[in-house]
Amino acid sequence: FSHSEKIHRTMHGLYIGDLVYGANDGIITTFAVIAGSAGASLSPGLVIILGLATLIADGISMGLSNYLAIRSKLDYQKQERKREEQEVEQFPEQERREVSNILERWGIPDERIEETLNIITSDKKRWVDLMMREELGIIEDSLKAPIKHGLITTSAFIVAGILPLTPYMLGVASKSQFVVSLIATGVTLFVIGATRTFITGTKWFRSGMEMLLVGSLAALAAFFVGGIVKNIFGISL
Prior knowledge:
By secondary structure, the protein is mainly alpha-helical. The chain has helices at 3-13, 16-39, 44-90, 92-106, 110-121, 124-134, 146-161, 166-169, 174-195, 197-200, 204-233.
């Protein structure tokens, strides 16, 4: 790939995690609501209302949480860089000694340390970059845009999460609604889970089955809770 293509692919790759995890949470959350409603024998209309309300509220909440988490992380990194820049300006000799210690730790020969030290400290940005990584252990995320991550997370959550509701919204026969939703959710969970390989590096089939199992357990729990609550409180809707 050309240099521009590599940058393009890298920037888009930053959002794969938001897409995958947003979609995973969206579909599991919505189907859990549907399963709980089915366990409580709620009407299709109530299933749609509860599903959409949960989908929109949780989707926005998840997007905002991701946005705030990333912004906080970037603000922290920015603050630490500013502090490190001030230390380089105000205490250059002390900071040079710290760089020298880092070079020794790297195993640079003694006769080459002074030369290497001068090369690094001759450029302030390079100097601070080194201190950020080696002294503070901070790997900066310069390409991240918090608002984009938040929007992508919310969008993925809602788009994937609306799939289990589709049979109810399209008026599929009442007896088949839950079964169709179950099948659609299972297939989607497996596909989305398999795409996690872009992030985790695990085998796609294993990743897909893991996601399907997690979603199934959540749905099963919701189904039984719905039935138990209905019986305990005598709810009939």
